[in-house]
Amino acid sequence: MQPDLLSARFAALADPTRRAILARLAEGEASVNDLAAPFDMSLPAVSKHLKVLEKAGLISRGREAQWRPARLEPMALKGVAEWLDHYRRYWDSSFDRLETYLQKIQKGDPHGPRN
User: Fold this and answer.
1) Residue pLDDT, tens place only, 12-44
2) For the segment 66-99, what is each residue's pLDDT rounded down to a tens digit?
C-alpha cells in the first residue's frame, strides 16, 4: 500500500462521523439521505465526509438514475488492519515477555529484580 493512501485512510478514520458512516455502509449500500438521517448535520456536510472516505478508497459511489448509492470497500480496510496487526504482534510479544518476567519474580528466581 502506498504510504499516502495509508495516511489518507487513517485521516479519514480519525473522524467519528466517518467511522459511523462506514459502520452503516457495512450493512449495505445507502444514499446520502440515508446516511445523513442519524446525524444533526446538513446533506452537504455529509457529502463532504463521503468525499473524504471516497478519496481514501474506503467507499465507492455508484450512479443509478438520480440515486448515487455509497458502498463500503472492505478491502481498503485490509491495509489498515495489516499495519495495525504489526503493532498488535509487538504488544503481544511485549506482554509475553512481561508475563515470563513476572513468573520468574513470583518463583523467587535469583536473577529476578533486586530490592
Assistant:
1) 999 999 999 999 999 999 999 999 999 999 999
2) 888 999 999 999 989 999 999 999 999 999 999 9
Question: Is residue 72 within 8 Å of residue 21, measured between CB atoms?
Answer: no
Asked if 46 and 52 count as a contact pair (C-beta separation under 8 A), the reply is no
Contacts of 42 (CB under 8 A, 6+ apart): 36
Burial class (CB in 10 A: 0-12, 13-18, 19+), 54: middle
Q: How far apart are CA 39 and CA 20, in angstroms?
A: 10
The answer to whether the CB of 75 falls within 8 A of the CB of 65 is no
Q: Which three cell numbers stand for residue 79?
A: 491495509
Whole-structure pTM over 0.90, yes or no?
no
CB neighbourhood size of 53 (10 A)? 27
Q: How far apart are CA 22 and CA 8, in angstroms?
A: 15
Please report which residue ranges of 1-115 form alpha helices under DSSP H. Answer: 3-13, 16-25, 32-36, 43-55, 74-106
